[in-house]
Write a structure and sequence with these properties.
Structural class: alpha/beta
CATH architecture of the largest domain: Alpha-Beta Barrel
Shape: elongated
Oligomer: single chain
CATH class of the largest domain: Alpha Beta
Bound molecules: 3-methyl-2-oxobutanoic acid
CATH topology of the largest domain: TIM Barrel
CATH superfamily of the largest domain: Phosphoenolpyruvate-binding domains
Helix content: 40-55%
Number of domains: 2
Number of helices: 12
Order of helices and strands: HEHEHHEHEHEHHEHEEHHH
Distance between the termini: 32 Å
Largest sheet: 8 strands, parallel, barrel
Length: 299
């Protein structure tokens, strides 16, 4: 019999159906808010899926919050696919979106289509996300034409951090806001099924959301979007370097993990762990045979 505990299906989600891009649109049309979170590994995806999240984004934020890079620019296709596969193994219901990393879709439309395809074929994703506005419209169109759903992402686009001069809010002047408004319309026309609006003024996000037919997913963009996404490590208090102002922390796992590791170390140092209940037992008769065979007495 297996000693590995199995996680039973959660009755709350037993009747759930797989979330598709169509369901995404239907939720937005009904005015039902869409929830999205990032995940990069099997257990997080499993728990998140059981919790009932609509969509899981395997974000390139992976580079910062899991791999410890300074920003998202170093993340590769191979790293993304590795983590996509882990998430796919954990999640049954959520719409799975793979984030196309820097330089996987900018060089040519052909390369972008091929890499987008890899997210579905090798990573098990249902859709891809890519950053940028009007300059990406032909890329979006080509990927969509191959049958791959694309989520757009405008506003603060972390892959352009060097051009933006840091992780700062976007669209705060009339001219910048107009450009974002137009970009949103162009991306919808290019075929995006949904659009992430990151770090833009709430009233602009609401204006764009009202204008577009496709669902908008906000992060640091106020209440006016059709859905909300957060980076899970921010929400759980697991990212040590900074917490953006728009994050609500639902847990402080950094402290909780630090406490648990500290208690383990103390238990080991003080001989408190392992206890008898953690130790494999051997029958006395077998032990006696062993002692006589190796010639050891009094043990
Ligand atoms: O990489 C990511 O996690 C993202 C979200 C912040 C939307 O792009």
């Amino acid at each position: 019999m297996s000693t590995i505990p199995t996680i039973s299906p959660d009755p709350l989600v037993a009747n759930r159906k797989k979330i598709t891009t169509k369901v995404f649109q239907q939720k937005a049309d009904r005015g039902d808010p869409i929830s999205m979170l990032t995940a990069y590994d099997y257990p997080t995806a499993l728990i998140m899926d059981r919790s009932g999240v609509d969509s899981i984004l395997v974000g390139d934020s992976l580079g910062m919050v899991v791999l410890g890079y300074e920003n998202t620019l170093q993340v590769t296709m191979e790293e993304m696919l590795h983590h996509c596969r882990a998430v796919k193994r954990g999640a049954q219901y959520a719409l799975l979106v793979g984030d196309m990393p820097f330089m996987s879709y900018q060089v040519s439309v052909e390369e972008a289509v091929r890499n987008a395809g890899r997210f579905l074929q090798e990573g098990g994703m249902d859709a891809v996300k890519l950053e940028g506005g009007r300059e990406r419209s032909s890329t979006v169109q080509a990927i969509v034409e191959t049958g791959i759903p694309v989520m757009g992402h405008i506003g603060l686009t972390p892959q352009s951090v060097n051009q933006l001069g840091g992780f700062r809010a976007q669209g705060k002047t009339a001219a910048a806001a107009k450009k974002l408004y137009e970009d949103a319309i162009i991306l919808q026309e290019a075929g995006c099924f949904s659009l992430v609006l990151e770090s833009v003024p709430g009233r602009l996000a609401e204006l764009i959301s009202d204008k577009l037919e496709i669902p908008t997913i906000g992060i640091g963009a106020g209440k006016g979007c059709d859905g909300q996404v957060l980076v899970t490590h921010d929400l759980l208090g697991l990212f040590d370097r900074f917490t953006p102002r728009f994050v609500r922390k639902y847990a402080d796992l950094f402290s909780e993990m630090e406490r648990s590791f500290g208690e383990f170390i103390a238990d080991v140092e003080e001989g408190e762990f392992p206890g008898v209940e953690h130790t494999v037992n051997m029958p006395d008769d077998e032990w006696m045979i062993l002692m006589s065979e190796i010639g050891v007495k009094n043990r």
